[in-house]
Structures are given as C-alpha cells and as structure tokens.
Description:
The protein has about 375 residues and is an alpha/beta fold. It has helices at about 25-35, 50-65, 85-100, 100-115, 145, 150-155, 175-190, 205-210, 230-245, 250-260, 265-280, 285-310, 310-320, 330-335, 345-355, 370-380, and strands at about 40-45, 70-75, 120, 130-135, 160-165, 195-200, 220-225, 360, 365-370. Helices cover about 50% and strands about 10% of the residues.
Amino acid sequence: MRLLNDPLNPFMFGKVAHGQGFTNRSRDMTNLIRDFRNGIHTILISPRRWGKSSLIQKITEQIADQYPNYKICQIDLFNIKDEDDFYELYSQEIIKSTSTKFEEWKTTAKEYLAAFMPVFSYSVDPNTDLKLSLNLKDGKNNFIDILNLPEKLAIKNNFKIIVCIDEFQNIGGFENPLLFQKRLRAQWQHHKNVTYCLYGSKRHLMMELFEKRSFPFYRFGQSYYLEKIEAQEWESFIIQNFERFNKKIAPEFCTQITDLMECNSYYVQQLSYLIWEITKNEVSKEIVNMALERFFEQNRILYQLELELLTAPQTNFLKALCSGIDKNFTSQEVISKYKLGSSANVIRAINGLLKKDMIDKMGKTITFVDPGFRLWLKRIYKI
Ligand SMILES: Nc1ncnc2c1ncn2[C@@H]1O[C@H](COP(=O)(O)OP(=O)(O)O)[C@@H](O)[C@H]1O
Ligand SMILES: [Mg+2]
C-alpha cells in the first residue's frame, strides 16, 4: 500500500498528459496555435496513443491563457452513434465553451435553439455534468441552425471559436455518412469566425474522409501529421523525471525504452512508469527486464485475446512484420517464407488488420500500432 508521503510516480499513461507529464511538442503547439488563429481548418492525424488529445488539451490551455478572445470547444465523438446524438453534443459543447455560467447557457440555448425545445439536465453519469437535450424530431430539417451555432455566437459576442472534434472518423458509422458530411461541410465552409480541428486515431479512415476526392470533406483543411516525440526528447524527459525523485537512470536505458517502445508516447510512458516503480536508487539491466516482465504480465490476457481473433494469414503476416520486414509483403519470397498463400491473401490480411486497428500504414510502410504487442509476439514466437 502506498503511504501518504510516498512520492507518486511521475510517468502517466492512459489519460491526457498534462503539467510536468507533458513534454516537447513545442513546434506543433506553435504551428497549430498560429494556424487555428489564422482560421486554417486542420485535420490532425496520427495513430492512437501518439498524443493528439494531450496536444489539443495543452493548446486549449495555452490559448485560454494567452488569447482570451478565442473560445475553444472540445468535442469527443467516442460515444456518438448517430446524427441526432451529434447535434445534441455539438450544441451542448459549443454553448458551454462560450461561457462559464449556467444561466447564460440556458439563455443562449433558448435564444438560438428555441425550435428544438432545449433542456439542460444532470446526466446519470456523475462524471459528466450538465447535458443538453434537444427535440430533434420536428426540427430535423433545421439542422442548419445547429451547424451554424458557433458562427452566430462568435459574431454576436465578438469572439472567435476553435472547435476541436476528437474521434471524428466515427461519423463514418452514421446511417448516411456521406449525406451527413455534405451537410457539415456545406455550412462549415462559410464560417469566418470558427476554425475546425478534426482529429482521430484511425489513420486510414481519417485519410479516407479528407483525402479522397469523392468525399465531401476533400481538402476541407490542411492535413497535419503528428509525428512521434523523438528519442532524444524522451531521454531528457525520462532522466529529469527520475532525478526529480533522486533516482538515476543512465542514457543507455532511456535508449532501450524508446527502442523497445518505438518512441510511442503511451508505451514509453508505461514502461518508464514500471521501471520507476521498481527502482529504489538507480536503474539497472535487471530492473528493465523485470519491468518488461510486468508489462507482459499486465497485457498478456489482452494480447492473447487479440491473437485468438486473428485469421491464420493475419497471424502469419504479423510474424513477417515482427521479423523486421515492413514493405514488399506481396513479394514471392515473403509470401512463401511466411506461408501467406497469395498476394490477394496478403492484401486481405492487411485490410483486416487495419480495420482492427492493429497495424498502421503510412505510404508503403506498415508498422504495429502497439509496439508492446510486437514485443510479445516476438517473444512467444521466438522471432
Ligand atoms: N506530449 C506528451 N508528453 C508526454 N507523454 C505524452 C505526450 N503526449 C502523449 N503522451 C502519452 O501518451 C498517452 C496517449 O496520449 P493521447 O494524447 O491520449 O494520444 P491520442 O489522443 O493520440 O490517442 C498519454 O496517456 C501519455 O502517457
Ligand atoms: Mg485521443
């Protein structure tokens, strides 16, 4: 059991990185804040767990601090299943972002969304506060009023709004996604006081939404590819966080962490967390191995489940990927060495794994989304 005075582990994963737990990204912050203020809509793309949500949160704080004339609205579509859900959440969060006072939310909702009979109420979930409900049945054709809400509010109050929408690719699962996207784009493209930052983790879905000519959001804004935080940056971050608690870690172990976890933010933090927990004074080779064992223990059940859900060609494909091959999977040599059958099989396996969000494809290069899963597969298959 942790005593009250025990120092808390400085590494964090699984929630938005903030405060001293947030590192680097200063160039991304400068670029994005400048672009948002210049009204450039941005599509922020990276595989999951590289740091999009953390970055946007950090940017939100900085803008609130430095540019009071800008309001930031953050919307997460994680739980949003259809268009109606979207309109409610969108209106709710836009209204909330424009004022801190509940009374003003009510007034704004009444003034701008009267046709939908807006009601704010406490939701059953104690973690989320007030929820806005709209009666959309009769007013469905008035979705235009909802989509233009931020622009109207910005003009009326003489401020600008930056609307950040997380897990945007979820709209692909709505009943008629193309029609819905057309509706959004048709209104949003006229907004002069609102900047949109749309982001999401399924890179292939996000790219499809924004980079395919036939899609309504084609070239809606700039695509901004978030990169990994570099090994060197991680090294100083890790060393500092050990030193803050009078623990020592040699640079070679930092390199080991970033190599093993391929500089993936979440997993670098997770392994560092485990190493920090075990270390009393100074990190050693044994401690790193012990931490890795704990990592596998914690993830084994999940990884086994993931493995069980794969088809034989998908598993064989991952074995090829583990062995260091990251391109030319349809070559005869790779196909026969890894028993992949045919190039059509390989393509099917790749598409299946992309859909499951287990691999990521950038150009022709394919990588694991979860570097820990790669390590685990290498271990069980002795690759
Ligand atoms: N700038 C950062 N500095 C330190 N750790 C970070 C940073 N960005 C992300 N992380 C780590 O990665 C994890 C996943 O980040 P998150 O922002 O949720 O990624 P995404 O939104 O891309 O899925 C966080 O919980 C944190 O451990
Ligand atoms: Mg996120």
